[in-house]
Specification:
Blueprint: E1 2-10, E2 13-22, E3 28-32, H1 39-47, E4 54-59, E5 62-63, H2 68-72, E6 75-78, H3 90-100, H4 105-118, H5 134-145, E7 152-156, H6 164-179, E8 183-188, H7 191-197, E9 200-205, E10 208-213, H8 221-237
Parallel strand pairs: 3-8, 3-9, 6-7, 7-8
Antiparallel strand pairs: 1-2, 1-4, 4-5, 9-10
Helix pairs in contact: 3-4, 3-5
The chain binds adenosine-5'-triphosphate.
GO molecular function: ATP binding
Organism: Metabacillus halosaccharovorans
Keywords: ATP-binding, Nucleotide-binding, Transport
Length: about 240
């Protein structure tokens, strides 16, 4: 996946400024930045939900325009606040999403059983989603994002609502998903999550990738970078 010179402003507020990122197959890339850095905006640009002002995004030789439906087949997306249909059961929800994504009928049943089992939702398969906890809803949202086995999985602030055993499971599930040649691109503001899940981390600050880390031990620098940046910004204002 290539993010090339992506620039985005909302009105006169510049949010992304010439962002360049290349993520290889099999890689988990973390976008680490403080609140308001533009992480969700970049994910929405990759998804085509937000149109960048400049630059391009390419997944498997496909640009977000003009064939968005072809492009979207390659992508799964988990927003920070999952959108689910409360009046469906998790099985009905996954069936609905599978149909939307064009999963072949012959694969649908086994695929959904596998996901419900993997995500420990089999015993709740007949309950309404409205009765689910926040963490269970988030898990179902991840399952829904991968029913069509997308090449790129976009996760906006994953793991934030999971308890320790679910976090452990989810990390191992995502690592395994990437190891099959898929790309995982995730945003977080938590150094710990970035350190334990990602192969590479880019620091998004003031609209640009300030630094990329492969040796994730060095991520301890991140908090100092942010604090120095905020102090410099405050000094400029005063
Ligand atoms: N639709 C929009 N219209 C106007 N401004 C927006 C819109 N979406 C985001 N912004 C602004 O763009 C900036 C970046 O927001 P964004 O949600 O991308 O940041 P983020 O890094 O994901 O933040 P957080 O970690 O708090 O979720 C913020 O100042 C936000 O208010």
């Amino acid at each position: 996946m290539i993010v090339h010179h992506v620039t985005k402003s909302y009105g006169d507020q510049s949010v992304l400024n010439q962002v360049n990122i290349t993520v290889r197959e099999g890689e988990i890339y973390g976008l680490l930045g403080p609140n308001g850095a533009g992480k969700s905006t970049l994910i929405k640009c990759i998804l085509g939900m937000v149109k960048q002002d400049e630059g391009e995004i390419i997944i498997r030789n496909c640009k977000v325009d003009p064939k968005r439906s072809n492009y979207l087949k390659n992508i799964g997306y988990v927003p920070d606040s999952p959108f689910l249909y409360n009046y469906l059961t998790p099985r009905e929800y996954l069936e609905f999403i599978s149909d939307l994504q064009g999963v072949p009928a012959g694969q649908k049943h086994n695929n959904i059983n596998y996901l419900l089992e993997q995500f420990s939702l089999l015993d709740r398969q007949d309950d309404m989603i409205s009765t689910f906890s926040h963490g269970m809803r988030h898990k179902l949202s991840v399952a829904g994002a991968i029913v069509h086995k997308p090449h790129v999985l976009l996760l906006d602030e994953p793991l934030s609502s999971f308890d320790p055993p679910t976090t452990k499971f989810m990390k191992s599930f995502l690592k395994d998903y990437a190891s099959k040649g898929n790309i995982i691109f995730m945003s977080t503001h938590l150094v710990d999550i970035a350190q334990h899940l990602c192969d590479r981390v880019g620091i998004l600050l003031n609209g640009s990738i300030l630094k990329e880390y492969k040796d994730l031990e060095d991520l301890r620098d991140f908090e100092n970078l942010i604090i120095r940046d905020m102090e410099a910004t405050n000094a400029d204002i005063s």
